[in-house]
Specification:
Helices cover 53% and strands 13% of the residues. The chain has 237 residues and is α+β, with helices and mostly antiparallel strands. The chain folds into two domains: 116 residues, Beta Polymerase, domain 2, CATH 3.30.460; 111 residues.
Length: 237
């Protein structure tokens, strides 16, 4: 971080958090940083909302205000920062966010974001070449991402919790089996059948949640809490 920012959190995300990694898997990190109060209020500075460190690792951090806004939009990769137990750096501000994660959640946004992300992975699995620019095998990666994000959303709707590890997922063995498998060796009809099954399961979980736990289904962010929380965080300077 620069002289006018400080790190609030850095956690492991991606396959090493999901427990689907291989020895060759990259390390993915997400974090939160905060500008100091003077820089945040200055009308003359350039306010950085995201920090991305280029290299072999995917290391992306978000400024506190931007992170809080993105969390209310339901992006699963953002939400994982609340729940990752592989913590590299933390702070009292990060710990408070972890303890009050429900105040940042918008269930409908989470459902829509999860479904949108998953269906994007579905289209990539259909149309992208298997090998990426760095010769990474991508078709299986897209399929796994689809299954993971919809399963995480399903579990939230059924159990009111966000699960990072896929070890309890009933498709875990299938996911581990196809991880890193070239497209020509995949059973493509089976893979797409699994995705269609998970898509239907999410619809069923959504209906179950609506009828049985409406307080979860209708959950909205506590905007006053979030605004007060951000104000307190900046006042600590």
């Amino acid at each position: 971080m620069t002289d006018n920012t400080n790190t609030l959190a850095k956690v492991v995300v991606g396959s090493r958090l999901h427990e689907t990694a291989t020895p060759e898997s990259d390390w993915d990190y997400r974090g939160i940083f905060k500008e100091d109060l003077r820089s945040a209020l200055s009308p003359f500075g350039q306010h950085k909302t995201t920090s991305w460190i280029e290299g072999d690792e995917d290391n992306t951090s978000y400024e506190l205000r931007e992170f809080c806004k993105l969390a209310t939009k339901g992006n699963a990769t953002i939400i994982e920062v609340f729940f990752s137990d592989k913590i590299i750096e933390t702070s009292p501000i990060h710990q408070e966010m972890r303890e009050n994660w429900k105040k940042f959640m918008d269930t409908h946004n989470f459902i829509n974001a999860s479904r949108g992300y998953a269906h994007n992975q579905y289209k990539k699995a259909l149309s992208y070449d298997d090998l990426g620019e760095r010769q990474q095998i991508r078709t299986a990666k897209f399929i796994i991402a689809f299954l993971r994000v919809l399963w995480q959303c399903e579990q939230y709707l059924l159990h009111d919790e966000f699960k990072c590890s896929l070890k309890t997922c009933d498709m875990y063995d299938f996911i581990k089996e196809i991880k890193g498998t070239p497209r020509e060796e995949l059973d493509i009809p089976l893979c797409f059948a699994k995705m269609e099954e998970m898509d239907k399961r999410l619809l069923q979980a959504e209906e179950w949640c609506k009828n049985n736990t409406p307080e979860v289904y209708n959950r909205k962010p506590d905007i006053k809490y979030i605004e007060d929380f951000i104000l307190r965080a900046y006042k600590e300077d």
